[in-house]
Specification:
With 147 residues, the protein is an all-alpha fold. 71% of the residues lie in helices and 0% in strands. The protein contains five helices and no strands. α1 runs antiparallel to α3, α3 runs antiparallel to α4 and α4 packs antiparallel against α5. The longest helix is centred in the first third of the chain and has 27 residues.
Length: 147
Amino acid sequence: MTTTTASNYAAPAATTGAAQDALALIGRILIAALFIPAGFGKLMGFAGTVGYIASAGLPLPQLGAVIAIVVELGLGILLLVGFKSRLAAIAIAVFTVAAAVFFHNYWGMPAEKAYVNQLMFFKNIAIAGGLLAIAAFGAGRFSIDRK
């Protein structure tokens, strides 16, 4: 009978390859393409954003709108350029899961609204998963974090 020890496993590569770095950049661009325009839209339509947040029954809708703008626009830009990308990705992931719970709570909606909101809920959960992958593995070589 043989035993397996940690020394039997190859250590992960210390650096990423060009393809991985390119994919990390493309992934950051695609995720940022969702958040940056949304944050800009909330900034330009601040009153409407406040109204939408209030309609969900959340407290302090003005503060919620400011938080949404900072996360989507501000942290979205940080993610795009790869500056403090791990922290930005975690914060955006938490925000995205919270948005899913508060704004796409399909389990409490009538059947005619539940299906679309279930899709939106799980879309948010999937986006959070991608953000957590960035948090785990970093922004790649084509980022400010790597300079």
